[in-house]
Amino acid sequence: MEMNSVVEPVAKKQNPTKLALVDAAERSILKNGYKAMSFRDLAEEVGIKSASVHYHFPTKGDLVAQVMRRYREDFAERLTLPKKKRSAAQKALNKFIDGFKAQVVDQDNMSICTILMAEKSLLEEEAKAEVAAFYDLKLEWLSTVVSYMSQEWITSEDAHSYASQILASLHGASVLVKATGNPELFEHAVAPWRDLSNRF
Fold it and tell me: Could you give the CA distance from residue 78 to residue 73 in angstroms, rounded to a whole number?
């Protein structure tokens, strides 16, 4: 399964103003959410006229889609597949879990995807598609890693089912920690996945 199959590369050499707008938009979403983000505020931050924002990104949906596309591609570059061995696959999964914990739980942050999903009803279709593509990327990687753990043949449907459960556990655990203020609950929730390879 090729991990790059869901990634459509964005040109590395971008217009500096366009890149600055994407940076500003990402910061705005993380700070205040999607609804509060305005082209006027972005233009002021970047130092251009509001009409110039529309030149680079005709709609808010176009801009947010670009933010998520870059986010997905950056994530994909860091997401490498392990060797097709049980131990290597388990190590890779644990590293994935640790990375999620470090970014979301330990820093008491909400990911940009979580923020956007909270306002999904307001998103344009192109932005929704990019968010979905990001989760598809993670599910595809997790499915492949799970399949490497199985000593016997495992169906793609079963691997995907495990991947869905793992991802749901991570996100659910992060919400539980945020709600209770008890960071230990994260490890309680994800413990079954720490030794998944031993269950096959």
Answer: 9
